[in-house]
From TrEMBL:
UniProt KW keywords: Cytoplasm, Hydrolase, Nucleotide metabolism
Active-site feature positions: D72 (proton acceptor)
Domain of life: Bacteria
Reactions performed catalytically: UTP + H2O = UMP + diphosphate + H(+); dTTP + H2O = dTMP + diphosphate + H(+)
Function according to Swiss-Prot or TrEMBL: Nucleoside triphosphate pyrophosphatase that hydrolyzes dTTP and UTP. May have a dual role in cell division arrest and in preventing the incorporation of modified nucleotides into cellular nucleic acids.
Annotated site residues (Important for substrate specificity) in this chain: R11, T73, Q157
SUPFAM superfamilies reported for this sequence: ITPase-like
InterPro entries, sorted: ITPase-like_fam (IPR029001), Maf-like (IPR003697)
Protein name as it appears in the record: dTTP/UTP pyrophosphatase
Location, primary (coarse class): cytoplasm
Length: 193
């Protein structure tokens, strides 16, 4: 069985090695703006991850024994979805809005075989609380550029970690790949022993 990760995320690549030591990377070119958010975070990330895995599956249609893993992660606060900030100002707005509050991180995972015989998707939610940050702390954090390319403008394993007061759920989900849920899913599908 050949495994393909449909993601350019270095965090996901690093985490997936804990389950699958060998896999290929084929980055999905799917345009996320084609999936409208309809108020259900779980359904939204599942559709995003499914669309990514299916777009990569199309590249392997004539291949046997190929399994594609697609993933997407979003941050949600009071019904507002935070993706990756486009600039410092957007990151600042995200961090300021989450300061002193709980927010939810959702990851969608889709496991799809090239021949279409396997097509499994699920989502995982983790709740995270930032401490109440001072303006100086926010500016110091933004200066690190740790927010670049990260949903919600932060990576739990990075410079923002000292501001995280509490977490409820899967830590690795906040990093972008819920390891235990993916591992169990692959076992349920008889892909892993």
């Amino acid at each position: 069985m050949r495994f393909v990760l449909a993601s350019a995320s270095e965090r996901r690549q690093e985490l997936l090695r804990r389950i699958l030591p060998e896999y290929e990377i084929t980055v999905s070119s799917f345009d996320e703006s084609l999936v409208p958010y309809k108020g259900d975070e779980s359904a939204y990330v599942i559709e995003l991850s499914r669309s990514k895995s299916h777009s990569v599956r199309d590249l392997y249609m004539n291949s046997e024994d190929v399994l594609i893993i697609g993933s997407d992660t979003i941050v949600s606060l009071d019904g507002t979805i935070y993706g990756k900030p486009i600039d410092r100002e957007a990151a600042s707005l995200m961090i300021r809005s989450m300061s002193g509050k709980w927010h939810s991180v959702y990851s969608g995972i889709s496991v799809t075989s090239a021949d279409g015989s396997t097509d499994s998707s699920f989502s995982v939610r983790t709740d995270v609380k930032f401490m109440k940050m001072t303006d100086a702390e926010m500016e110091e954090y933004l200066d690190t550029l740790d927010w670049v390319g990260k949903a919600g403008g932060y990576g739990i394993q990075g410079e923002s970690s000292k501001y995280i007061e509490e977490i409820r759920g899967d830590y690795y989900n906040v990093m972008g790949l819920p390891l235990n849920a993916l591992y169990k899913n692959l076992k349920e599908l008889d892909i892993l022993g």
